[in-house]
């Protein structure tokens, strides 16, 4: 009886172009595409993945993309064809499909980070990704005990850009708060201009969540000094918000007891969830 050919077979001549680690990454990424586990990626599987990244494409266009790399005419992308596409990409021969694969690598990383947080959450944080776009998260942060934010639940929006993790996600707080590191705008949200000065490419979403929790426990007024000293206010911060932020900053530094009183009151008024029925 003839042996069954390995569905993930790659010729040695092609395999030698990549390290063992790179080949393992390719296989992991390919299996994310191949949801049926049959060793090939068809138009339906490709469409599902694209939809999860908020990319919409007609089936005819998907089939034409597959045909570019489908050397044996099976109507699917097999693993050896996937690796050949990555080889061509390394040589500067890119196409629309290979560019999408590059984008999907980041999406896989973000998805893995979410699953890791779902399995082992940062204490006091709950992450809910958007159904149609894994690069957007809603994050609920419980105010830590022994702080003016105790009992409050604070909602954040995370938007991961194409340069993540080399650049931080765009983070905005969507719950009203009195906190030295969050300048509330007229629409009731607060941007995080200071995040760029803290971020390094070694950070991941878990690191960011842990730092946010720490900021609730131990606010950092020094992060705001460059923002308030800037000749021009950041584009997201208007005159009224800037004035409110400076007042909050001064209360925190000069009148800490009054700061705690105001922060506690605003937490009770705007961030405390209603009792469950």
TrEMBL record:
Q: Which InterPro entries match?
A: EF-hand-dom_pair, EF_Hand_1_Ca_BS, EF_hand_dom, Ub_conjugating_enzyme, UBC, UBQ-conjugating_enzyme/RWD
Gene Ontology CC terms, in alphabetical order: organelle
SUPFAM superfamilies noted in UniProt: EF-hand, UBC-like
Please indicate which superkingdom the organism of origin belongs to.
Eukaryota
- Recite the UniProt keywords alphabetically: Calcium, Repeat
Q: Which SMART domains match?
A: EFh, UBCc
Tell me where in this chain the EF-hand domain is found: 21-56, 57-92
Q: Which segments constitute the UBC core domain?
A: 105-272
Question: GO molecular function terms here?
Answer: calcium ion binding
Show the stretches that span the lipid bilayer.
none
**One Pfam family recorded for the sequence:** EF-hand_7
UniProt similarity note: Belongs to the centrin family.
What PANTHER family has UniProt attached to this entry? UBIQUITIN-CONJUGATING ENZYME E2
Listed name of the protein: Uncharacterized protein
Q: What is the lineage of its organism?
A: Eukaryota, Sar, Stramenopiles, Oomycota, Saprolegniomycetes
